[in-house]
Design goal:
10 helices; about 260 residues; binds adenosine-5'-triphosphate
Length: about 260
């Protein structure tokens, strides 16, 4: 008997997504699919709409039209439209920001523990009266957060003020905080920006190791060599429209992409 093979359902399906700011259409009828465990890059010239897309996906902006569908393996699918940012995080999407957003007066460890909050159960009552279940949960959170800091190479700075970290380390801390939420899809907005070559190499190894745990990755990045090395599939935006998609090899040689970057 022939075995029936089931096509892998996309983890994320974006249908005809548009986002207007007054008269500006920042995203125009965008269609995107991301499979579980895939590394996908979103590239395009400055102002193409990449960060706006992340903001729509993570509930910071309400899209003008279109649909965001989330279908985790072995779970029923749901629309992400209309969910608040913390509800989207609970679904398994986590992000970092182009302009780093850490709690700079809190410690490195506390920043990661905050990321863990969406997977813990302590209530305000628990936080005040601290029954043993809450104390135990807090110890587990500290252990998990330390392990994540080790993973991104920041364990020795756990008790440092986050704002005191050098730029590249702050970017890695944002990744640790995002990982603390147990994502199925990690959105990285220009993670290599401002990094020196060594930090860039460490970042690439970190992204590969996160991917090898089965986490899908959506990467916005201007470092094309990094994109070409990492991505399974690339989507190219220009003026909010999808102008090309495909493998790194296909994108590298696509005339529309070359024209968008270099002009006529
Ligand atoms: P970059 O590579 O420079 O970060 P990008 O591809 O991420 O660019 P966006 O920041 O998404 O581009 O911007 C897309 C367009 O939407 C730009 O014209 C920008 O000015 C506009 N835009 C983005 N956010 C807003 C906003 N909150 N209000 C008005 N216009 C906005």
């Amino acid at each position: 008997m022939a075995f029936l093979t089931h096509p892998v359902l996309p983890l994320l399906t974006v249908n005809r997504l548009s986002m207007d700011f007054g008269g500006i259409r920042a995203i125009d009828q965008l269609d995107i699919r991301i499979k579980p465990g895939e590394i996908v890059a979103l590239i395009g010239p400055n102002g193409a709409g990449k960060t706006t897309f992340f903001n729509c996906l993570t509930g910071l902006y309400t899209p003008t039209s279109g649909e965001l569908l989330w279908t985790p393996p072995n779970r029923s699918g749901r629309r992400l439209n209309g969910l608040k940012p913390h509800q989207i995080t609970e679904q398994g999407l986590a992000r970092t920001f182009q302009n780093i957003r850490l709690f700079s007066n809190m410690t490195v460890l506390e920043n990661v523990m905050i990321g863990r909050h969406c997977r813990t159960r302590a209530t305000v009552f628990g936080a005040i009266f601290r029954p043993s279940s809450v104390m135990q949960e807090e110890q587990t959170t500290i252990g998990t957060s330390f392990a994540l800091l080790e993973r991104v190479g920041l364990a020795n700075l756990a008790h440092e003020r986050a704002g005191n970290l050098p730029y590249g380390a702050q970017r890695r801390l944002e990744i640790a905080r995002a990982l603390a939420t147990d994502p199925l899809l990690l959105l990285l907005d220009e993670p290599a920006a401002g990094m020196n070559p060594q930090e860039g190499q460490d970042l690439e190894a970190l992204i590969r190791s996160i991917h090898s745990d089965g986490v899908a990755i959506l990467l916005i990045e201007h470092d094309m060599q990094l994109v070409m090395r990492l991505a399974d599939h690339i989507f190219v935006l220009d003026y909010g429209r999808l102008i090309a998609e495909g493998t790194p090899e296909a994108i590298r040689n696509n005339p529309a992409v070359i024209k968008a970057y270099l002009g006529e």
